Every structure is written in structure tokens, then in C-alpha cells.
Amino acid sequence: MKYALIGCGRIATNHVTAAVNNNLEIVAVCDVVPEKMEAILEKHNLADDKSIKRYTDYKKMLEENDLELVSIATESGKHAAIALDAIDAGVNVIIEKPMSMNMADAEEIIK
């Protein structure tokens, strides 16, 4: 399964660990801070894997890759918008809690 991670902060390491443990093909990582991407890849001994694309723009990542699953591990206020963009791109999502900051966005994601 082609997998990508959006947001490379503290909780993201759990997502990469799960992806590795479940034999997902890590296609790309995305964070607005490039150093965070490299740090998480280094932590999981993936920094030298040049087949893993690095992005600072998640929309570009969604457009340029044939992804099947993304984990959204950004700051909470951005979860819903990113999830909806991923869903619109035909990608399945795993969203860190909270799914959204309001009920309307949560209901839109669930649709």
C-alpha cells in the first residue's frame, strides 16, 4: 500500500513505526519544516532512501503521487482541511485526534 505522512512532529514517529511494521510502502513525507522530515526519516533509518519524496506542500504531494493512504499528524486545527483535500484526491486517511475542531467539519469528513 502506497503511504505518505503529513506532519512530522512528535506523534508522527508512531505513524512511521506503524507503516514500517505493516510493510507499507512509504512514498512521501510532508512538513513545512524540512528538518523535521529529515529527523523522522533518520530516526527510522530511512534518511538515505531517496525513493521517499520530501514535500513542504501537502497539496503538491497529493497531486504528484498515486497514494492509497495518508496519516495526518499536523497541528489539530489543520486536520480537517487536509483530510478533506486527501479524500477529494481519492486517498484514504488516518487522522490524529481530534479529527476536526468542529462538528460540521467532522461530519463532512465522515461523508
From TrEMBL:
- Gene3D superfamilies in alphabetical order: NAD(P)-binding Rossmann-like Domain
Report the superkingdom from the record: Bacteria
Example GO molecular function term?
nucleotide binding
Where's the Gfo/Idh/MocA-like oxidoreductase N-terminal domain?
A: 1-110
Q: Which residues form a coiled coil?
A: none
Q: What is this protein called?
A: Gfo/Idh/MocA family oxidoreductase
Gene source species: Mogibacterium diversum
